[in-house]
């Protein structure tokens, strides 16, 4: 069943507005991720909440994506090139440190370690990701075994 049209106007109830923001933000981040994977697109998405918190998704380095955008639309670089470069490098280093921490944490979760801080929703998502991974591994195994069997059958015929 399809959804009806939503009238686009500010949601007055703060709780409803926050819930809608969270759901739509997550949906938008998911769509950005899917677009980057399915179409091999370079995607950069920045979202600032009403409280000022920043959310971002970047399929590649966000700084590089922003620089590429600035170049595409003809925006000039900052006059103080040296300072700007150092600032960009510090930002990139901070971003990479956060990314490394996140990836190390996810690696531990996939190994079944450090799960105490995960809630039920995160555990279900992790279980689903592992199940999909196992299905892919088994599919690849079947493919390799099938190729090997076909190769052996051809050798037996000759």
UniProtKB/TrEMBL annotation:
Matching InterPro entries: MADS-box/MEF2_TF (IPR050142), MEF2-like_N (IPR033896), TF_Kbox (IPR002487), TF_MADSbox (IPR002100), TF_MADSbox_sf (IPR036879)
GO MF term set: DNA-binding transcription factor activity; protein dimerization activity; RNA polymerase II transcription regulatory region sequence-specific DNA binding
Pfam families: K-box (PF01486), SRF-TF (PF00319)
Entry superkingdom: Eukaryota
CDD domains: MADS_MEF2_like
Coiled coil location: 86-143
Major site of localization recorded for this protein: nucleus
Domain MADS-box positions: 1-61
Subcellular location: Nucleus
UniProt key word Hydrolase: no
Gene Ontology CC annotations of this record: nucleus
Keyword set, alphabetical order: Coiled coil, DNA-binding, Nucleus, Transcription, Transcription regulation
GO biological process: flower development; plant organ development; positive regulation of transcription by RNA polymerase II
Domain (K-box) ranges: 86-158
Record's protein name: Putative MADS-box transcription factor 23-like isoform X2
Source organism per UniProt: Davidia involucrata (Dove tree)
